[in-house]
Amino acid sequence: MSQAQKRFGRFETVSVLGRGGMGTVYLAVDPVIGRQVAIKEIRTDDETDYGVERSELYARFEQEFRSAGTLSHPNIVTIYDVGETDDAYYIAMEYVDGESLSVHLQREPQPSFVRICHLGHQIAAGLDFAHRRNIVHRDVKPANILVTGDGRVKISDFGIAKVVSSELTQTGTVLGTPAYMSPEQARGRPVDGRADQFSFALILYRMLTGVLPFLGEQPAATIYSIIHDPAPPPSEHNPKLAPAVDRVLLRALEKDPAARYGSCRELMRALAAALRVAAPAVTPSADGVSRTVALPASTRPVAAAA
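User: That's the sequence. What structure does it adopt?
Assistant: Structure tokens below.
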């Protein structure tokens, strides 16, 4: 059986979708109902080196499916099942036919204001939904934002998410991607949804300017800059941006979490107003979740998964 033809419980793999820092993602089929799923495999054999003890790796994985599995929202990748093999844990999750925002930004570094707001409102809705349930993503970045062919956003990989009420992640442990990390996370301090808001603001900053405000030659230099350096006004990189846009993003990028917005959606409302982009249309649902009406996608979809 080839590497792309494996079995995880009842799930039969079809192909490899990608490989990340902690495992491989497969396209698979649930033969019981004929549904395509994405399988995220976290290998745990003795020869695999993740830079952490195996016990910590198990704990991270268990944290992922316990936290992400409680989330049911149109802008968050759904977890269907979890399981274990002889040398790995795996998560069966919603398969998203689209592309990551990081791929989109490689092709179109500065999307239109309308496109930025359309994506941003959806990202904010998914993050705020998790935050209301005391779940913090801790690794919000373009690679973890999936966009479907019709322009719908799905936030993926709550792999290092922290349930605020849990004591699993100890103070002093730094988890996340340096370029999109909040100052409090970089310092190893306790975090809440405002840390995700800081990371989200960095994504917005990049989409509006084509660059990141904090970026050193080495990860340590990037972390130092995030902790100590003020963010330059985005208009320094994009003169088309009004002073109101500077004020909005610089507030979301404050070092002190208390100085940021009360929610990601509050940030997006302020940004959309500064950009003079009309608020998105929403449709009510039976579960009380407002769903943003998707705009037509500007790019052809490419297979992607969480």
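The first strand starts at residue 7 and ends at 8.
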